[in-house]
Amino acid sequence: MFKPQYPRPDTYTPPTIRPTPAVPAEQPASNPVPTAAPTALGGLVQNSPGTVLALAAGGVAGVLALASVAVSLLLAVAVTAVALAVSGVVLLFLVRTLRQEFKNH
Fold first, then answer.
1. Between the CA atoms of 73, 76, 77 and 78, what dihedral angle is there, to the nearest 10 degrees?
2. Lower CB count within 10 Å: N or C terminus of the chain?
3. Which sign, positive or negative, has the C-alpha torsion 26, 27, 28, 30?
4. Among the listed residues 34, 55, 33, 56, the one whose alpha carbon sits nearest the alpha carbon of residue 44
5. Three-class DSSP labels, 45-87
6. For residues 72 and 66, is the Cβ–Cβ distance under 8 A?
7. Of 96 and 24, which is predicted with more confidence?
């Protein structure tokens, strides 16, 4: 009952492909055709004014997203600093008040 039941091993054997050696044929000598150098995008996107505009818009959107994250982090630090400053002043006031009560008694 508590013995594990293992599934049967897979009996599928993938077919092996053995390529036949190709006999190299003589190619006629021709002048090489100059090709365009690959662009920064690796030739995946055709260069046009629309793609340049889309890339610029994407870059601006990325910079704005990073700027909003940075501003929110700085705002969180500022709010925390103000809260700590206010709590420090309140604690100082309470300590001074308690010291005056103990001096009077």
1. 120
2. N
3. negative
4. 55
5. CCCCHHHHHHHHHHHHHHHHHHHHHHHHHHHHHHHHHHHHHHH
6. no
7. 96
How many Å apart are CA 65 and CA 62, to the nearest integer? 5
Give the integer Cα–Cα distance in Å for 36 and 38.
Answer: 6
Mean pLDDT of 79-93: 97
Helix-then-strand count for the chain, H and E: 1, 0
2-11 confidence digits (pLDDT tens) = 888 877 877 7
> Comparing 83 with 15, which gets the higher pLDDT?
83
- What are the phi and psi torsion angles at 102 (to 5°)? -75, -30
Alpha-carbon distance 83 to 75, whole Å? Answer: 12
CB 47 within 8 A of CB 39: yes
Helix (H, G, I), strand (E, B) or coil at 40: coil
Q: Is 89 helix (H, G, I), strand (E, B) or coil?
A: helix
